Amino acid sequence: MELAGVTLGLREAVIGLITLVACYIIFVLLRMYRLHSRAGQVAVPREPIPAPVEPAVPPEVPAAVEPDRAASDDWERASRGMADEMLRHSLEQEFDQLRDEVDAMRGELAALRTDMQQELAHLRAAQTVSPIYGDAMQMAAAGYEPAMIAERCGIARAEAELVVALAKSQERGG
């Protein structure tokens, strides 16, 4: 694809995709760091709380209120623990998903590398042959039959068979 005089190919697209995934990973790690640092902080009020004015007679606290406070504290601790566990679970899932995506990209890159090496081998094969037989060599590397190569390139069938044999030997050796 050509855009504003710049040719963009599959390689550039893969590099761009890798860059986007790396940015996303950095973004997720920053979010995790912020959440971790927030969890370690203690809430500090912005304005100083005025000292409560004590009444002359202390109020009587019914005995039934104390267990309710303990129960509400237990409830808050339990709900905080559940929230932390849910957050940890969701972050682990997201991390596993990112790991799977990176593995898939590695597989795609390996396949692209193999394709590029094969293409390079074909180009090298075409360069090592006389310019007269360059087209015949490219056709042989593409898998054409000797009769078709001889007809299209204007060479003898025996020459076309030799070119096909040379292309096959270079594929095995390259």
Features:
174 residues; mainly alpha; two-stranded antiparallel ribbon; 5 helices
What does this structure look like?
A two-stranded antiparallel sheet has the order 1-2. Strand 1 and strand 2 form a beta hairpin. Helices cover 74% and strands 2% of the residues. It is mostly helical and 174 residues long. Among the domains are: 40 residues; 64 residues. It is rod-shaped. It contains 5 helices and 2 strands; from the N terminus they run ββααααα. 9% of the residues are buried. The longest helix is centred in the middle third of the chain and has 64 residues. This is DUF2802 domain-containing protein. Pfam families: DUF2802 (PF10975). Keywords: Coiled coil, Membrane, Transmembrane, Transmembrane helix. It comes from Dechloromonas denitrificans. InterPro entries: DUF2802 (IPR021244).
Q: What structural class do the secondary elements suggest?
A: mainly alpha
Beta-strand content bin: under 5%
Average pLDDT, to the nearest integer?
A: 81
Instruction: Characterize the main sheet.
Output: 2 strands, antiparallel
Oligomer: single chain
Helices and strands, in order, run as EEHHHHH
- Strand order within the widest sheet? 1-2
Query: Uncertain runs with pLDDT below 50, 5 residues or more?
Result: none
| Terminal residue distance | 30 Å
Protein name: DUF2802 domain-containing protein
InterPro entries: DUF2802 (IPR021244)
Coiled coil: 88-115
Transmembrane segments: 13-30
Layout of helices and strands, plus pairs?
Layout: E1 2-3, E2 6-7, H1 10-40, H2 65-128, H3 134-142, H4 146-153, H5 157-173
Antiparallel strand pairs: 1-2
Helix pairs in contact: 1-2, 2-3, 3-4, 3-5, 4-5
Keywords: Coiled coil, Membrane, Transmembrane, Transmembrane helix
InterPro entries: DUF2802 (IPR021244)
Coiled coil: 88-115
